[in-house]
Amino acid sequence: MAAKILDGKTMSEELKSNIARRVAAMREKGVIPGLAVILAGDDPASEIYVRNKGKGCEEVGMFSRTIRMGADVSQEELEAEIQRLNEDPAIHGILVQLPLPGHLNEEAALSRILPEKDVDGFHLINAGRLMTGAEGVIPCTPKGVLHMIRATGEPLSGKEAVVIGRSNIVGKPMAMLLLRENCTVTVCHSRTRNLAEHTRRADILVAAVGKARFVTADMVKPGAIVIDVGINRVDGKVCGDVDFDAVRERAGWITPVPGGVGKMTIAMLLANTADAAERTLRHA
Ligand code: NAD
Q1: 275 counts as catalytic
Q2: Whether the predicted pLDDT of 113 surpasses 80
Q3: Distance, CA of 105 to CA of 121 (rounded, Å)
């Protein structure tokens, strides 16, 4: 039987309606949640992501500001802009669109963002909080993936979870979140030997590799929950890291690309910004 589809479009619309209600309540108290996005350089994919983030803000009634900086911006100029946004009470969330032009130090820039305004959850403080189980900002993509996994209604405790990819923005925080759910977690990466032996054990398989149709049906346990984080372009069309048509015949649940995790990432960015704005209201 073909896998059930975890529909990111519908799920993200539900999340956004809920966020829009929260924003309306804050507006009544005189606070308009604000997101600032810094875009350095002219990467075409980043342009699209930034535009979609702005559109998302508009949909839920938030305010957004895009700060464009040239590809030759200096580290000092970038960090000075972050500092201005840290001090701006109209801005509750700050996001530096990655990747930054090669001459800039990403980690140094991210660590300038106030942890409370770090709506991407990439600041070392937030990474540490996730690691230790303290409350903090959770990176948007893994947070969205966990929401989708929970939507299956299957109990997660004790499940075998395999994450392919160990990046700081997807793979590692994903592994931490699944560990928090009491899964037994394996993280696979480019040096993993016999990858399929690991993936075939997975009740939950998350692919965050960046290689088109990398996960094939023979790598998947029958009935597994398969989450495809990948965004790849092949012949001008977007596809994921999972060979969707074949894996769909074997998995229990699967996310499509497009229309899967990507939609959830934006919804979680809005959720993190709403959380940040609510925190300022609580502390006002
Ligand atoms: P990355 O390049 O930083 O990491 C890729 C990971 O894949 C690495 O940890 C590497 O070890 C692993 N890998 C590479 N080759 C492998 C192999 N042969 N076997 C096993 N592991 C291998 O990428 P990232 O930033 O984590 O993103 C991964 C993918 O997810 C990309 O396609 C990216 O565009 C996409 N992405 C999507 C969203 C979204 O919202 N849907 C968000 C972030 C990233």
Answers
A1: no
A2: yes
A3: 17
